[in-house]
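DM from R.C. (forwarded with permission)

"hey, sorry to bug you on a friday — could you get me a structure for this? deadline for the figure draft is monday and I only need the backbone to look sensible"
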Amino acid sequence: MPENIKYLVFGATGLVGSEIVNQLLELNKNVTVLVRKPIENPSLTQLVGDIVNKDDVIQACQGIDIVFQTVAVIDWNPQMPDSMYKVNVEGNRNVINACIECGVKKLIYTSSIDVVFNGQDIDKGDESLPYPDVYLDHYSESKAIAEKEAINANGTPHQNGHLWTCSLRTAGIYGPMDRVRLPTLIDAVRKGKYMHIGDGSSKFSHVYSGNVAHAHILASEKLGENSGVDGECFFITDHPATNFFEHVEKILIPLGYTPSQKSIPCWILQVVAVFSEFSAKIFRPKKAPLLTKYTVAANCRNFNFISEKAKERFGYIPIFSLEESIRLTVEGLKKRGYDSKKNNEEGNSDKSRIFFRRKRKTVR
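My reply, with the result:
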């Protein structure tokens, strides 16, 4: 592939996509993004559009060599929102079809550990795990459908040769641009609804967004015919699995919060989750309930993975330490107004859409 490789990032303002853009720019790469609203960054080629619009996606893919597809609607609501299927499945399908039509050489799909989870224990899981027959939530199912379609497209012939694809199944991602998991927990703490689920013995895999981005770029460099990466799925984690609440409190406490240490047994919350989901199906609230069969199972069971395959196939090793990952996450959330002082004074207001680093730094 020529030196002047052209990259396209879908989801460039999101948790993973923004980090991929940052790291590509730090490497002085030619980066294009498709965004719904313009971004203040002269280093990028920007196209305004939406992944659910086929024409927008085709226009964005013109002349592109490598595509990163990170877009997804994340929602654990027991009723699948129309937007979730439209974006996660149909939008991803638009990307795949556009890559084939426009002769894109490589497509890296951002998947999730949820695609293999059905509520049963997974301890040090690897890629031999099968897709479950039944999922606990629609998000997991939508990601599995999209992943299968991305992998099935591997090797599809087109005008420039073939499309090569792979899928990176990320653990629970955290980072400065988190708009889902950490903001939800912060809101729960502020409202007195935060609690520990279970006895603290279960282990969950988290991964820092910067390490996820690094894995994507490494995969894109290795991806090609008979590379050991094409048509393959990879779990992406970084540091040893810990209890979910032990990890998130390393972020909540430096933000100035004092999370409750109250713990409720799993069996009680499993019953509550059933009624919570039943109520949500009837009343259809805009926000997903805090307790669902998925959220309870994910915290009551071991739900952790290893990344040995990614290390062996494309050399993935985390570049951000746990300490640095926590520090950068806390700093980013403070800038966005999520620390306790700002919340108490003015209520939460996420004042910044995205932080793009403009200066090139040394990649650790």
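R.C.: lifesaver. Residues 351-364 have pLDDT under 50 and may be disordered.
me: no worries. The first strand starts at residue 6 and ends at 10.
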